[in-house]
Amino acid sequence: MPLPAELELIDRIRARAAGARSRNLRLGIGDDCAILRPAAAEELVVTTDLSIAGRHFRLDWHPPESVGHRTLARGLSDLAAMGARPVAAFLSLGLPRELVQKQKGRNAAWIDRFLDGFLALADATATPLAGGDLAESPLFAADIVLIGAVRRGRALLRSAARPGDLLYVTGALGAAAAGLALLAEEAGTSPQAALSSRELVGDARLRRHLYPEPRLAQGQALVRRRLASAALDISDGLSTDLAHLCHESRVAAEVDAGMLPLAPGATLRQALHGGEDYELLFAAPPDSKVPRTIAGVVVTRIGRILRRHARRPQMTLLTAQGPQPLQPRGWQHFAPVKKEKR
Amino acid sequence: MPLPAELELIDRIRARAAGARSRNLRLGIGDDCAILRPAAAEELVVTTDLSIAGRHFRLDWHPPESVGHRTLARGLSDLAAMGARPVAAFLSLGLPRELVQKQKGRNAAWIDRFLDGFLALADATATPLAGGDLAESPLFAADIVLIGAVRRGRALLRSAARPGDLLYVTGALGAAAAGLALLAEEAGTSPQAALSSRELVGDARLRRHLYPEPRLAQGQALVRRRLASAALDISDGLSTDLAHLCHESRVAAEVDAGMLPLAPGATLRQALHGGEDYELLFAAPPDSKVPRTIAGVVVTRIGRILRRHARRPQMTLLTAQGPQPLQPRGWQHFAPVKKEKR
Lengths: 342, 342
What we know:
32% helix, homodimer, alpha+beta
């Protein structure tokens, strides 16, 4: 008796996911639920991120391995922002039938190449795939759930920044947005040419866009060394994520444009508003001894946290032309529709 | 400065979700992650379920309150099948813009009525909504993540049924499938008429389809009283879910057609293969003192677990005409495409 098609695909994913283990995962794929056994001194953090074809990536631009990598990286980056280590991942997939079937002239179906990218990052970060769900869907959608562990009471919150704290970022900003712009430009003529072009494949900006690196070691170091008061990851863009931080901490902030660590080939606009850099943005008390690098990644002071005032903008950008209000202009869901002229 | 539209919707959901609490949830919506603090004597179970418009429900058939209820019920039913109590829910939504906007002549947007149904069940089951994600999407998709807690080592697994165990189900079978058939029939003429028809609204089968009741108290009682060896919930249909149990436990099973507790107005076919009853299917050793009702719900013995044999079907249905192979004919994702005649 042949197994139903769903079981076959689940068994395929399960066989491929069998490698990764974590000490707190007691039972992975195959039952109604996975079972986690947390350590007594730790608490668990949970995050979910939804990726939808045509919104978060394009099937005609992004290689399946990149879509898989980016799906997991989004969730891991949220763990990094809390200072947590990965315990388990859960992946729900809405899959068009043609992505599950082998394509002509290819050895692997789209979904297998997606899993290649997903599981390579899972292996590299010791993140076991412990469950999920599958459904046929006219549109590709992937919801990633990440569970992490962090010492009790030490998770880095968005809500704990205080006036007087200094603002820092890891790494460089704007590379992912610059990489996406590059991809869009080349794809304008021929998307396949864009991705097979040798110069493009070697471009650091494109690589940052296609294969971002969640800052897990850096987030964990911030917790271990008690360096930061608050943190989040830059997924929507510095301006929008800083607005999140100000909103949750009920503070204001100023950023010095001249201090921003621009990625090579990125513009100030891309560094301020471009999303998907997956660097960490954190606040630290002025007496915190924040080092210049953490686990091999540069850390840069970019501004400070201020008291909120009714008559002052929540965010200010210091420029050579003087201070100006900084608006959140990064990624927004449900942004107001522009009124069309009649 | 107005908040970005995404923050506004998140704040709306957060305000509505603020009521529910659970003792193990330290931090809910608003940060990169939620924070859970499990009790030392417990382990956590995690499940995800993806619902897609047009696959799991129809926007033109199902009231938004039912879609919200069913989304959460699917996840809660997986907790029930492990014998766990709810700790937190996470909801990722891919939302068409028109579902977020108020409709003409209505006081609430579709999404608000969806949340009505979702949060009513969350309240009734003490399940706090602790996080999630939102994205605009041409297609409605909801991924529900449920985290539950159960005493260490006591979760009910699919893989622990043994030859000689007896098979039981809670409640009655086939009602949800009968309700769906009823809905489809009425909707054939006018879907709106179907749902506003007084007889239909009062129909127990339709109610079971639109507002299924996850068997949380029953699952927890099976664990507390150590009654069952293995369990899962009947979400795909008895035949398909029993195939899952046999597959994971490496056993065979026989079901006595005459013993099946058919819901009033449901056919044998609907009881065997109709999905979404969300009753529990469990195995118990022959000396287990399984009561006739658990927490007000009838429990019925329907068959037994057998040793697996290469030359015997994995599942057998005992009928008045003698034994016959039982095929998994419930809900399947990626079922083989039927070849069309040319």
